[in-house]
Design a protein that fits this description.
SNX10 protein; SNX10/11; membrane; protein transport; 10 helices; PX Domain; 164 residues; cytoplasm
């Protein structure tokens, strides 16, 4: 991105439709006077194997993001930044924004941008249940510092995502 609003210049994040619903609800509750764009309709017979269904929904979600990124008030919402620049779940984003973690929003973005995991403390708790041989394979992605995974996740940025 070329926007000074974003901590990272590139990010690659996978999100489910329900996470977009969550984001829209949170943005709407924080910006009551702004009429947010609608998400693409959730069809009861959505078929992931149908490329037309998938492409139609993807285009609708992309248009939603492009519209909300044009509003300065919405750009000030930390949840939007975490949504676009980290793999954190909605619950983890809420915890981070509300100060329930020892990490700031900026720390989360810089450290967990393209990692498909939660905060290190949760990783450590999960590792305690494994034996030493199993946890060795995950040691390269633990800690707060950026890793090679956080720099490049193998996604090719589209022109629309470069403007986000």
């Amino acid at each position: 991105t070329n926007s000074i609003c974003f901590t990272r210049k590139t990010s690659c994040v996978r999100r489910r439709y329900r996470e977009f619903v969550w984001l829209r609800q949170r943005l709407q509750s924080n910006a009551v006077l702004i009429q947010l764009p609608e998400l693409p309709s959730k069809t009861p017979f959505f078929n992931m194997n149908n490329p037309n269904h998938v492409d139609h929904r993807r285009q609708g979600l992309q248009e939603f993001l492009e519209k909300i990124l044009q509003d300065a008030l919405l750009l000030s919402d930390s949840r939007l930044h975490l949504f676009l620049q980290t793999q954190l779940s909605p619950e983890d984003m809420e915890a981070c924004v509300s100060g329930q973690t020892k990490y700031s929003v900026a720390d989360a973005i810089l450290s967990f941008a393209s990692l498909n995991r939660r905060f290190p403390i949760e990783d450590e708790e999960r590792k305690k249940g494994k034996n030493d041989a199993d946890s060795d394979s995950e040691s390269s992605s633990s800690g707060l510092g950026p890793s090679d995974d956080s720099i490049s996740c193998g996604c090719k940025a589209s022109p629309a995502s470069e403007e986000s």
